[in-house]
């Protein structure tokens, strides 16, 4: 019994320098996908975020909701269509995306976080993000956009009141048209404009693996000058390719570190931020300390 208490105290002592260093710092956390279908896993991530707020950090959440959107589209008789990993979004689809994210998924997450005893508020992405249509090589995704600017004032106002903002990945253009934004890209834009200390992507993979079939091959740290080589040799490929590319862009823009962690590991967010070893992959500009 006493030994168990001593071990718990040792964990707190290990976390102490990180708690001190991160106090008052903004950290953007992005999650979505399969996590939103797992109430227990979702609650674990939100509990970690609640802990971050409790110890004086300023967490900001950007979340997706792709599976819920696809389900709603199928109910409406619309077949989901993806091109290069992005959802083709016509007039009917953008209406469904808006409804599902802003009136279903987001309020559910806010309610869950408030149920833990912490203040949270949903933020419609359209209220803080501006975008232009996403066009590459003449392909047309419809109302899919790239973020052009983020109004940080409403987000900072919530943080100053010790309220956790939960932001949906939607934006509008100058004419008021809503655009569906890739949630990873939305989180990167928010983190960049907030000058966040860290950006954390929570997904169903542990990070960047040298061997996809061997979780022990996790690469704990990747510097910017190593990214291209890992892409060229195929280590970074598939779904990790746009994520790492976005992370590299975020670090290059001034965010100190970007982390990739596994939602299936209990309290992976806290373990990555507040322990010496960490549990995921971090992207950094160069050889720097873990903090």
List keywords for this structure.
291 residues; alpha/beta; Carbamate kinase; 2 domains; single chain; 8-stranded mixed beta sheet; globular
Mean pLDDT: 90
Query: What is the CATH architecture annotation of the largest domain?
Result: 3-Layer(aba) Sandwich
Structural class: alpha/beta
Strand order of the largest sheet: 5-8-2-1-11-13-14-12
* Secondary structure: helix percent: 40-55%
CATH class of the largest domain: Alpha Beta
Largest sheet: 8 strands, mixed
* Overall number of domains: 2
The number of distinct β-strands equals 14
CATH homologous superfamily descriptor of the largest domain? Acetylglutamate kinase-like
Broad shape: globular
Q: Radius of gyration from the CA trace?
A: 19 Å
**First-to-last CA distance:** 32 Å
CATH topology value of the largest domain: Carbamate kinase
Poorly predicted regions: none
What order do the helices and strands follow? HEHEHEEHEHEEHEEEHEEHHEHE
Give a summary of the structure in a few sentences.
By secondary structure, this protein is of the alpha/beta class. The protein has helices at residues 2-22, 39-54, 66-75, 91-115, 125-128, 153-160, 183-194, 224-232, 240-252, 268-274; strands at 26-31, 58-63, 82-83, 86-87, 120-123, 129-136, 139-150, 164-167, 170-172, 178-180, 198-203, 221-223, 257-262, 281-284.
Fold topology:
Layout: H1 2-22, E1 26-31, H2 39-54, E2 58-63, H3 66-75, E3 82-83, E4 86-87, H4 91-115, E5 120-123, H5 125-128, E6 129-136, E7 139-150, H6 153-160, E8 164-167, E9 170-172, E10 178-180, H7 183-194, E11 198-203, E12 221-223, H8 224-232, H9 240-252, E13 257-262, H10 268-274, E14 281-284
Parallel strand pairs: 1-2, 1-11, 2-8, 5-8, 11-13, 12-14
Antiparallel strand pairs: 3-4, 6-7, 9-10, 13-14
Helix pairs in contact: 3-4, 7-9
């Amino acid at each position: 019994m006493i030994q168990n208490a001593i071990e718990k105290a040792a964990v707190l002592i290990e976390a102490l320098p990180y708690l001190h260093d991160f106090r008052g710092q903004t950290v953007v956390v992005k999650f979505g996908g399969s996590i939103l279908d797992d109430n227990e896993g979702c609650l674990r991530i939100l509990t970690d975020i609640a802990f971050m707020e409790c110890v004086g950090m300023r967490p900001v959440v950007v979340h997706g909701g792709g599976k819920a959107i696809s389900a709603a589209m199928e109910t409406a008789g619309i077949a989901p269509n993806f091109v290069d990993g992005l959802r083709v979004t016509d007039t009917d689809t953008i209406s469904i995306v808006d409804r599902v994210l802003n009136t279903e998924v987001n309020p559910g997450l806010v309610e869950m976080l408030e149920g833990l005893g912490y203040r949270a508020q949903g933020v419609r992405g359209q209220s803080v993000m501006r975008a232009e249509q996403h066009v590459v090589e003449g392909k047309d995704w419809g109302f899919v956009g790239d973020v052009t600017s983020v109004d940080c004032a409403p987000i900072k106002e919530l943080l100053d009141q010790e309220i956790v903002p939960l932001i949906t990945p939607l934006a509008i253009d100058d004419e008021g048209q809503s655009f569906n934004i890739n949630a990873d890209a939305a989180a990167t834009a928010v983190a960049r404009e907030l000058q966040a200390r860290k950006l954390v992507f929570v997904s169903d993979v542990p990070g960047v693996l040298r061997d996809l079939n061997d979780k022990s091959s996790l690469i704990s740290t990747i510097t910017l000058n190593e990214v291209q080589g890992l892409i060229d040799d195929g280590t970074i490929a598939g779904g990790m390719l746009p994520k790492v590319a976005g992370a590299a862009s975020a670090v290059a823009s001034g965010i100190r570190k970007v982390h990739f962690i596994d939602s299936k590991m209990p309290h992976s967010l806290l373990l990555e931020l507040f322990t010496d070893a960490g549990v995921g992959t971090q992207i950094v500009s160069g050889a720097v300390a873990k903090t």
